[in-house]
C-alpha cells in the first residue's frame, strides 16, 4: 500500500498537507484543485486512510461462538486458582475479540446432548479421558486443549514443560544444600455420572520421583499424595509431622497446598525456612501473601487461556496443521526457601 510520503511526492505538496487532506481536516486551508489532485493521486495508488482501514478491520471481526469445557468441578476450580486463572484468560481474550463464550460445560455433569452443535470451537481446560474426547468429536470440529495434550497430531494444545518447571524448583533446593526433600502433591480425578472415577497421574510427582532416585535422595516415607486443595495440604503436612523425622525441605505441587502446609507447620511451631524450607508451584496471587511468602514456579496461566483462543481462531480460519504451544515458566524466589533475593 502507498505511503503518505509517496502521495506527497506525486502531488507536489508536503506530507503534512496530504495527511490533513486525506483525514478531512476542516481547519486546513488549501486550494480545491490541490485537494482534488491529492485525492486523485491517493486513489490511483489505492491508499486507504487509517479511519477506513480501522472500519474495515472492525467489519471483519469474528462473530464466533466458543464453548469452554472444564475438567474441574466448581468447588475444585474455586479451591485451585490455577484453573480459574486459565478460564479467565480464555474469557478475557474472547471478550477482546468479541467472541461469545456463554456455553460452559463441566465433566461431572456432562451429557453429549448438552453440547451446542452450532459452536465454532471448544476449549478444553484440564486432563480428559479419551472416551470423552471421542464423544466431543461427534459434535464439534475444532478443539484446543489447555494444560493437556491428548493427541498433538490432531489437536491444538497449550501446555507448560513440567519436566523443566519441576526441575527449576528442585534444582534450587539442591543447590542450597537440602539433602532430605519431601513431596506433598495431589492427583486430578475425573468423576462422571454412573462411572467410576478416573485418576490421572501428576507429571510433577513422576518427575520428582525420577530425579530423587537418580540423585540417591528418594525417601518413600516423605511422599504424601491427596487432592490439590489448601485443606489437603494442611492435612498431609500434619501427617508428615506426626511421622517424625521431617525432611529439611518440601516440594509442594501447588500453592494452595503449600499455604495449608504452612498453617500446619505454624501450629507445631516449626519455622519456615529456618526449620523446614518450602518450594511450590503455580505462583497464584496468594503465594506472595502467604504467612511466609512462597518461593514458587511461576506459570503464566492467564496467558495460557488467551493463547488457546488465538489458536482456535487461527485453526477455524484455515490452518490445518495442529500446533502445540509450550509457554515458558520461571522460578520466583521468596522467603520460604531460605534464599530470598
Automatic annotation (TrEMBL):
Q: Does the keyword Transcription apply?
A: yes
Q: Which InterPro entries match?
A: HTH_LacI (IPR000843), LacI/GalR-like_sensor (IPR046335), Lambda_DNA-bd_dom_sf (IPR010982), Peripla_BP_I (IPR028082)
Residue ranges crossing the lipid bilayer per the database entry: none
Keywords tagged on the record: DNA-binding, Transcription, Transcription regulation
Q: Which residues form the HTH lacI-type domain?
A: 2-55
What Pfam families does the annotation carry? LacI (PF00356), Peripla_BP_3 (PF13377)
Which PROSITE patterns does the UniProt record give? HTH_LACI_1, HTH_LACI_2
Does this entry carry the keyword Ubl conjugation?
Answer: no
One GO molecular function term? Answer: DNA-binding transcription factor activity
Q: What is this protein called?
A: Transcriptional regulator, LacI family
Q: Which organism is it from?
A: Gracilibacillus orientalis
Taxonomy, top ranks, is: Bacteria, Bacillati, Bacillota, Bacilli, Bacillales
Amino acid at each position: 500500500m502507498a505511503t503518505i510520503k509517496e502521495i506527497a511526492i506525486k502531488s507536489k505538496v508536503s506530507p503534512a498537507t496530504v495527511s490533513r487532506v486525506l483525514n478531512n481536516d476542516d481547519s486546513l486551508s488549501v486550494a480545491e484543485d490541490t485537494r482534488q489532485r491529492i485525492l486523485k493521486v491517493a486513489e490511483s495508488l489505492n491508499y486507504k486512510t487509517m479511519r477506513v482501514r480501522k472500519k474495515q478491520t472492525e467489519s471483519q471481526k469474528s462473530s464466533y461462538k466458543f464453548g469452554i469445557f472444564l475438567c474441574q468441578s466448581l468447588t475444585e476450580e474455586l479451591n485451585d486458582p490455577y484453573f480459574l486463572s486459565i478460564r479467565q484468560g480464555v474469557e478475557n481474550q474472547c471478550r477482546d475479540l468479541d467472541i461469545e463464550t456463554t456455553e460452559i460445560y463441566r465433566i461431572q455433569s456432562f451429557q453429549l446432548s448438552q453440547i451446542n452443535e452450532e459452536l465454532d470451537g471448544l476449549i478444553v481446560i484440564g486432563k480428559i479421558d479419551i472416551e470423552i474426547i471421542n464423544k466431543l468429536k461427534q459434535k464439534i470440529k475444532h478443539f484446543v486443549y489447555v494444560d493437556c495434550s491428548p493427541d498433538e497430531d490432531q489437536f491444538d494444545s497449550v501446555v507448560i514443560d513440567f519436566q523443566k518447571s519441576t526441575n527449576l524448583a528442585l534444582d534450587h533446593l539442591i543447590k542450597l544444600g537440602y539433602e532430605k526433600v519431601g513431596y506433598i502433591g495431589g492427583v486430578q480425578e475425573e468423576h462422571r455420572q454412573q462411572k467410576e472415577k478416573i485418576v490421572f497421574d501428576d507429571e510433577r510427582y513422576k518427575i520428582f520421583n525420577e530425579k530423587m532416585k537418580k540423585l540417591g535422595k528418594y525417601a518413600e516415607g516423605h511422599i504424601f499424595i491427596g487432592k490439590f486443595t489448601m485443606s489437603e495440604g494442611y492435612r498431609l503436612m500434619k501427617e508428615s509431622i506426626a511421622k517424625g523425622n521431617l525432611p529439611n525441605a518440601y516440594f509442594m505441587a501447588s500453592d494452595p497446598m503449600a499455604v495449608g502446609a504452612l498453617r500446619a507447620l505454624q501450629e507445631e511451631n516449626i519455622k519456615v525456612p529456618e526449620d523446614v524450607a518450602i518450594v511450590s508451584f503455580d505462583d497464584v496471587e496468594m503465594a506472595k501473601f502467604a504467612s511466609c511468602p512462597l518461593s514458587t514456579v511461576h506459570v503464566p496461566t492467564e496467558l495460557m487461556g488467551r493463547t488457546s483462543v488465538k489458536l482456535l481462531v487461527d485453526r477455524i480460519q484455515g490452518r490445518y496443521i495442529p500446533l502445540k504451544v509450550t509457554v515458558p515458566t520461571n522460578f520466583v524466589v521468596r522467603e520460604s526457601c531460605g534464599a530470598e533475593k
